[in-house]
Amino acid sequence: MGANAGSIKGLSGKATQGACDMCGFIRRTPNSPAVTELMKDLGMDDLFLRGGDFYPGSQVDIVVAAPRPTAVTATWWFLIGNDGKPNHRYATFNARHLDGKLWREPIKTSRCIVPGTAFGESIGEGKAKQSFLLESSSAFLLGGVFRHYETDVGPVIGFAIITCNPHPGLSRYHDKACPLFLPAHCGLVEQWLDPSVPDAAVFHDLIDHPQLTTDFNVTPVQSTRKLV
């Protein structure tokens, strides 16, 4: 294999030119049997989650506890302005350094899950940047945090995907971070969503030692907006 090819838990592929932010693209294949099966395994098959290709600023159906697991439509951007739109002064579609001022309370009380079937990664800068589409053989859960806003246009929810240290199997596709994959275990997911479990230390092992919860097929792409 070449320098940019490799495999781990089914990961395979090679690199090409492109552009994609970490984690700046999520796909949830519409009417995906894999997503349906995943939600059924979690006892959440009554929830409807719209599919699509999502970017920062997109409207995405996520799952929160209110007080039981509920699907809500949220903006993929944590800081929302009074106009109900993302505050682009700060890039808050990813949450890192969770002990920081912005994240320390949400990680204790306002956690969410984001089911998906693919995501995008990139590595390198400028003309050397390489982009990839990582498609799951099944479906996966990403961990996130969210916040409710009362804006001039009404109630809005903003959310961010939690990112952590890169997994060794993903480092050739992005070497600075990886999204937080949550094992699809009912007990863990219930605990993750439960706002009465305020001690984020319960989840430190997941965040400090990222794991892959499914296999991925890696395809080189020009960018996640040009999937060729």
Report on this structure.
By secondary structure, the chain is mainly beta. The chain contains four helices and eleven strands, in the order βαββββαβββββααβ. The protein is globular and about 45 Å long. It starts with 25 loop residues before the first strand and ends in a 7-residue tail after the last strand.
Structural key phrases:
228 residues; disordered N terminus; globular; two-stranded antiparallel sheet; mainly beta; nine-stranded mixed β-sheet; 34% strand
Topology readout:
Elements: E1 26-28, H1 33-41, E2 52-54, E3 59-65, E4 69-75, E5 94-95, H2 106-109, E6 111-123, E7 130-151, E8 154-164, E9 178-179, E10 181-182, H3 186-193, H4 204-208, E11 216-221
Parallel strand pairs: 5-8
Antiparallel strand pairs: 1-2, 1-6, 3-4, 6-7, 7-8, 7-10, 7-11, 8-9
What is the β-strand count?
11
Radius of gyration: 17 Å
Tell me the series of helices and strands, N- to C-terminal. Answer: EHEEEEHEEEEEHHE
Q: What would the average pLDDT be, to the nearest integer?
A: 87
Q: Figure out the total of helices.
A: 4
Helices and strands: which structural class? mainly beta
- Sketch the major β-sheet: 9 strands, mixed
**Percent in helix:** 10-25%
Low-pLDDT sequence parts: 1-21
- Approximate strand percentage: 25-35%
Termini separation: 22 Å
Oligomeric organization of the protein chains: single chain
Shape: globular
